[in-house]
User: Fold this.
Amino acid sequence: MRFALVTEDPLLTGSLIECFTDDAITIEPFASELPLLRAMRTTPYDLVLIDAKSNSMLVNSLLSWRNCNADLSTPIIVLTPFSNWSAMLRWVNAGATDVANRFDLEQVRLRAHVVIRREAQDSGEDVIVHGGYVLRRDLGRLTLDGVDIPITPREFAMAWLFFSNPGKFLSRAQIAGSVWGACEDVAARSIEQHIYKLRKKLCLSDRSKLTLKTVYALGYKLDVATSEVSGETANLTLPQTGANAAGRTVQPYINHGVLHAQNA
Assistant:
């Protein structure tokens, strides 16, 4: 079994290597997130340990990037110097699989084994089904009505982000951090290009079941309301034209999706 460790602390590295020796677990250290992300493309890791001693931005960036990228669903444990529950919960809400105190090696060892066992029993969380769309994060595969859609890993990462949050506004900063692991300024032009490609490849236009909308000053949203409203309207049964009690002709009409009747 192989664990990756992101830390600049050589003492922590040595301690963790010794701690996991009896478990036949290899610890591969990385000084920063970039070499780790490159290594994860070719080397499978059972778990990633991230030292949050000094750089919380690094952890947030890596968690967001990991959560949206295909084939990188490796569990992550954040090693924090804080022992209070509120601080630990903050990392869990940010996307960490678990949190442990970096000064308590036995706690780190325990949480690692719990996470590995939980991951072995877990299933079904790498699939999103929405209408005719099926996204498989473990395979980096997207199908529409059973037909494979040719898509790049980064396009899939963006699609996963939107389909994980249907009907919610996603800012450019959120997209940049989740898909590129970078700030908005760095990825601005690439975001626009990928949005255009997703709309074209996934048929996310105004005439489709789902629409990828641009909302000024807010960002982008996978809109599901259009298809739902049109479907409800199409299913309405209009009454036949007839006469009311006063002998006047009644004409049916629809206003804002609500059926009314008016006197002719």
Q: What stands out?
A: The chain has a mean pLDDT of 76. The first helix runs from residue 10 to 19. The chain has three domains: 2-121, 127-223, 237-263. The CA atoms of residues 103 and 123 lie 32 Å apart.
